[in-house]
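Workshop exercise sheet. Pairs work together: one partner reads the sequence aloud, the other fills in the structure field after running the prediction. Swap roles for the next sheet.
Pair: D.N. / O.F.
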Amino acid sequence: MKIATFNVNNINKRLPNLLAWLKSSKPDVACLQELKAAKSEFPDRALRKAGYSAEWVGQKTWNGVAILARESEIVVTRRRLPGDESDVQSRYIEAAVDGVLVGCVYAPNGNPQPGPKFDYKLAWLKRLNAHAGKLVKSGAPTVIAGDFNIVPTSFDIYPTKSWDKDALVQPESRAAFGNLLKKGWIDALRKQHPDEPMYTFWSYWRNRYERDAGLRIDHLLLSPALSPRLEQAGVDRKVRGKPDPSDHAPAWIVLK
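Structure field:
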């Protein structure tokens, strides 16, 4: 079973790239983030023609998450992260697919920091940690995949000081990610590639993709019940080099 995550950075604008990647990579499940499309604007028909059913939570102009599945039913269990009924941003969807519970995450960016956007980021991550703890206790085989907007360690970013004030690398953000690992969640990319940076994001600025000046902010976390099934993990880096690309590349795992 191949499960992938891809921040598409506008699903309709990047639809040709997305369809080409789905055709070549053939994930069984794909978690998409930053759809930037209202619910009615989601390209459901094109994806079905490509062989994928979909469930999504859209939001006009911003955010938006989706779960795609190939030859499997998607049984949605949540369309929002619990813990704050006033939060209307479309950042989480969760579903059972072929015996695995899949949570698709688009965490807040948090910039500029300090400030209300960073406060929202930390509060959202606190809610994610609380929910993730309950998922671990349930014993269900679960993967939480998506754009966490967190660079976990200095090894997950190219050598630079230009990001030092960014919300993605702040100690509070990293602590929130670390708390997930303390609950038993396994960082699949890092487990399979302990000695490689495995970047998933390259800014559009200053030829950073061409210079491989990347960051690892897209993650696939496995619950303790699921981690023994991990066989492979990787990043489809070349997708970032296609014409008119997202600034992210897809990351993926293969489970027994």
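Discussion prompt: The longest strand covers residues 100-106. What would you look at next?
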